Amino acid sequence: xxxxxEQQAAASRLDRAHGALLGLALGDALGMxxxxxxxxxxxDDYGTITRLIDAGPRQRIAHxxxxxxxxxxxxxxxLLAQLLIDGDGHVDERxxxxxxxxxxxxxxxxGSLDLLGPSTKQAxxxxxxxxxxxxxxxxxxxxxxxxxxxxxxxxxxPDNLDAFVDAVVEASAVTHNTSLGIASASAIGAAVSVGVxxxxxxxxxxxxxxxxxxxxxxxxWVAGGSIAARGAWARELLGGTPVREHPTVLxxxxxxxxxxxxxxxxTLALVSVSTDPWQTLCTAAELGGDTDTIAAMAGAVLxxxxxxxxxxxxxxxxxxxxxxxxxxxxxxxxLELRVR
Length: 340
Hints:
Protein name: ADP-ribosylglycohydrolase family protein
Largest sheet: none
Radius of gyration: 18 Å
Pfam family, one: ADP_ribosyl_GH
Oligomer: single chain
Keywords: Hydrolase
Structural class: mainly alpha
Family: Belongs to the ADP-ribosylglycohydrolase family.
């Protein structure tokens, strides 16, 4: 490979890494006003989602937040990114737990209801009670680890999936040290990593399922459908369904709750049939349920596969400005860990 080829490859990786973080934040912001609402409430309050919008009168969690505001999905991902950078590619479990505690306290001080999810909340409480970090996440099976895993996908290459899942475990075990929690985070993280590596959407989804199969052998076993098996089923189901019926299938058959075997599976199925990344995120924001997390995870994967180009410049400018984000330098520092 010539010097010019190497520079071009490095520029492409940076664009895709930056695109992943932008997609994460954009999906999160699109789903902010609709999170935890029913499809009917979303339709009544907002109509069709085509752009960033303010939280409406029936939005309890993000009440009063302005259009373009991010939530815990992006904030915790950026928290993890900084810990990775500071730790030279490793995440100290105690430091992560302390950072999560500090983050929630800062949110409470602002009067926000956008706090830790159920698995993370329980894990943090156990840490405060003196439970070792290695045991605190033994009940975490929801999508919290998957929603914030994108920085691992940027910092760790996908060529050795066992090693990749090791990195996911290190970043997830403190809150989601279960077969479902680790499998779901491995799936989303691996999909991002393949995208940053230059892969297309189908490459990313295929590798997501492979990583999930490895991840479901890690951590404490918990009952629940296999992320890999359900993901493959959901991709085939959605791929054989007319586009106009996708939201119904996602809501009523696959599921959109915080359960990882619903929301993570729904994300991978939705990504697998995406032809327009921005429209895909808008669709996710209308589904009902855990809309901000589904849209954020989908945005991270689609951004990794497509770079920054698919994201509307006006939406990007709004999210960056409103939340005072500087994502490209973070992407660059995470990539420095990847190439070591």
